[in-house]
Design brief:
Keywords: Oxidoreductase. This protein is an alpha+beta fold. 20% of the residues lie in helices and 38% in strands.
Amino acid sequence: MTNTPGTSSGSPGTSSRKDRIDPRDPPADYLSFWRERHLCTLTTLRPDGTPHVVPVGVTYDPEAGVARVLARKTSRKVAHVLAAAGVDGPGARVAVCQFAGRHWATLEGHAEIRTDPAEIDAAEQRYEERYERRPSPNPDRVLIEITVTRALGKPPR
């Protein structure tokens, strides 16, 4: 069976056209789902190519085409992003995902580590808006900034 882009043959790495979302102009229901308080996962790739999946908080800024994850600079997820930076294009390939029942949303893209205090502070503010609590102060905090290249999902309608 031939698999054309945007169609699904049931093979890994494919999605149906109806699951694809324009990451720069998501529909209102998709954006609303990303504004709700949900625990998410971040998938990074280990140096051997196997996935490393961890729970995280994520904020999504479709106007900027960016998703953000706060992390400790010594975490494995940060080490994976740093190790893969520049290896496969601009930044490490990653995905963030959230779900609630049968509804889900995934953002894929290229991640880079940001250490600028102003960028971290702005990300903490976004986190507080979404999760209704400010992260505890952490001098070892960095920002994983994901330039979103693909959005998929089935949000509540």
